[in-house]
Amino acid sequence: MHQLQCKCGVVRGHINTKGLHNRLICYCTDCRAYARFLTKAAAHAQTILDTSGGTEIIQVAQSALHFSSGQEQLAALKLTEKGMVRWYCQCCLTPIGNILASPTGAFIGLVHSCLQRAELDADFGNEVALLNTNTALGFIKQRGLVGVLFRFLLLLIGERLSGRYRQSPLFDAAGLLRVSPRILTEAELQQLKVAG
Ligand SMILES: [Zn+2]
Ligand SMILES: [Zn+2]
Fold first, then answer.
1. Any idea which fold 2-184 has?
2. DSSP classification of residue 131
3. What confidence tens digit (pLDDT) does each residue in 20-44 have?
């Protein structure tokens, strides 16, 4: 079990670490825009991005995610109409993670900021894939993509066949998102992407 907590401590929960997972750093410009959206608005500086503009992410099944408090503080953001749903805490703007807009998407890419840095190796292993490195700020060599895709597919198939995807805390029983995401305007997105 891995503890999940926002910076101010209002949102708390845990992740069941027994299932399939991926550990990766994503250097895509969408993850970077999401981080910038949160850090720009936050009163205190948070270190979401690494020095090359990457976001460390732990991918798990949404059914492995459990909230114990502060769920009413969860807010959601979409960079574009069709984009991923990016969750964060309204209380302190700690990012939680990214999901697809459909419940059958089944996974969540948890952003490291809501996790326990000291326990990451023990709970999720020390192999970190590096993805979307062509948009990194500086030269980073991609690694681990095949393994990530393979485990991702296995996770998806397992969640779908077992019906566990219905146990996501982020969708209601009717399969609707519990919070309707705010969608950025094109101008807002451009501003967040301006620095690469
Ligand atoms: Zn908080
Ligand atoms: Zn990304």
1. 2.170.150
2. E
3. 999 999 999 999 999 999 987 665 5
